[in-house]
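ugh finaly. both done.
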Amino acid sequence: MASQIEMDETLLYLPNLYTLINTTCEVYCFHGTNDTLIPHTLKRAFCNVLPHCHYHEISEAGIDGHIFKSTTHGLGADFLALFDFVMGEKQFEKSTIFKLTPMTIESPVQDYYLDYTHGIPLLRTAKKGLNSN
């Protein structure tokens, strides 16, 4: 299915997508100052326009040998330890209710329909002016 979906900048650029679905989802971004693949200045600028984004720049001083082992791409990170760190810093509301409602995301290329009625997400797409797949 993914190979059949046309490239759609509306969905691939997170600030656009966040605007379309009005989410409060938080993003935690850890980026090394010596990343030669994606400059930290670009990632910082990206995070600044993304609602609820927590940007953490990792410099030489931030290398702890446990979670972060370098300041290059990937940070030499222990991602399980990083997950534990982020989860330990975050306070969550406890609830037994978890409900996802169906939604439509419209883009200039096509419309996307996410249906959670049966417990797992079902994605249907419809190119502008055509019936859904």
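ok and the 2nd:
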Amino acid sequence: MNIAPQVATAEISDADLENVSGGIAVGGGLYVETPVAAVASGVLAVATPEGVAAGAAVNTVAH
């Protein structure tokens, strides 16, 4: 099973890039594999002048 994160890309013009606000992002993850199961988890928090967002995910796979 492939648990690598999927990434989407998009084009952005130089004019639009000038309007991008700065912010802070903090994230981390953990992966543990045992003879019985594998567990992957991750968290992300983002703070910008426009607001705050946070997320978390947990994935498990039984062997």
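summary for the 2nd one i guess: The chain has one domain: 14-62.
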